[in-house]
Write a sequence for this structure.
């Protein structure tokens, strides 16, 4: 059995202190293997996003270990952690976190900008991933002008720009109608199947969870069920897919191309309900905070 791509030992996360202390994760030990698709399910407040953020190195645990490819992350310097996260992971969130006023291409290539990749290469790689998601014709459009399903495709393009080995998705279909959700799911599972990308998906959606090879059920900060009975058998075919040759040479013009991800045409509306102006402002501010955090990290790196 290969080294797990991600593992945790006795992972604890406590928010706040004193009377406002909240134990969000109460000692979680688990392994996620390369090529698996894992759903994290459970009621709202059970700790799903907290666990995902720790696995994705977006946040640090109060106690316990997170290891990536067998290396405990706590032994790395913060700059190395952010490099690892930028290189190895892609993110897809319910709220999209697109900069509404920037073009689709600028949004998709943001991780490359953070990594200091020159503009011409950013453009080439950005158009390449947009082509894979059949969104290249929208490259110069403002992100704001897209439908919900198109926005999520742009987010998936952004998640793919660094050729990640793991995609973390937090309620990726939470803002989409059911037909558009299917399209987004098909894209994610296509990436899993065709390229062996590991999927870690937080979801309330039973149908989406059922499509994953494994479901981790959370309750009050603990994993109460891990239905991975067929885990190793199920994970084998995906894991057996050789890593894409471009994975470690993403800038190679000869091998850096991926075929279009197979997915059905996006169904016509019904569209996800438009965000209220207040909600949009809140999300944009949050995205800005994230971006300036990421920039800060890039500068410190
Ligand atoms: N930054 C935070 N500060 C304080 N409490 C938090 C914070 N983030 C999450 N929590 C609390 O931790 C619990 C788990 O949150 P979360 O992981 O987001 O749950 P889920 O994703 O399953 O809905 C919730 O009760 C939430 O209120
Ligand atoms: Mg959550």
């Amino acid at each position: 059995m290969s080294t797990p791509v991600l593992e945790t030992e006795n992972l604890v996360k406590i928010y706040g202190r004193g009377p406002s202390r909240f134990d969000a994760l109460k000692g979680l030990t688990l392994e996620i293997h390369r090529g698996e698709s894992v759903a994290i399910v459970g009621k709202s407040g059970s700790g799903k996003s907290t666990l995902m953020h720790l696995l994705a190195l977006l946040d640090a645990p109060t106690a316990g270990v997170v290891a990536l490819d067998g290396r405990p992350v706590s032994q790395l310097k913060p700059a190395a952690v952010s490099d690892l996260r930028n290189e190895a992971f892609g993110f897809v969130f319910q709220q999209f976190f697109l900069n509404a006023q920037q073009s689709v291409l600028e949004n998709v290539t943001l991780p490359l900008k953070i990594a200091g990749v020159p503009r011409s290469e950013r453009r080439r790689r950005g158009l390449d991933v947009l082509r894979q998601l059949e969104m290249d014709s929208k490259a110069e459009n403002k992100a704001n002008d897209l439908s919900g399903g198109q926005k999520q495709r742009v987010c998936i393009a952004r998640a793919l720009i660094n050729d990640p080995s793991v995609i973390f998705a937090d309620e990726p279909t939470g803002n989409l109608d059911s037909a558009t959700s299917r399209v987004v799911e098909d894209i994610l599972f296509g990436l899993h199947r065709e390229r062996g990308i590991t999927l870690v998906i937080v979801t309330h959606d039973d149908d989406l969870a059922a499509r994953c090879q494994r479901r981790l059920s959370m309750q009050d900060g603990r994993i109460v069920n891990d239905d991975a009975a067929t885990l190793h058998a199920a994970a084998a075919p995906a894991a057996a897919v050789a890593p894409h040759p471009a994975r470690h040479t993403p800038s190679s013009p000869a091998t850096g191309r991926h075929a279009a991800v197979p997915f059905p045409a996006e169904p016509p509306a019904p569209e996800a309900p438009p965000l209220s102006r207040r909600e949009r402002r809140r999300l944009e501010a949050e995205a800005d905070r994230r971006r300036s955090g990421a920039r800060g990290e890039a500068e410190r790196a």
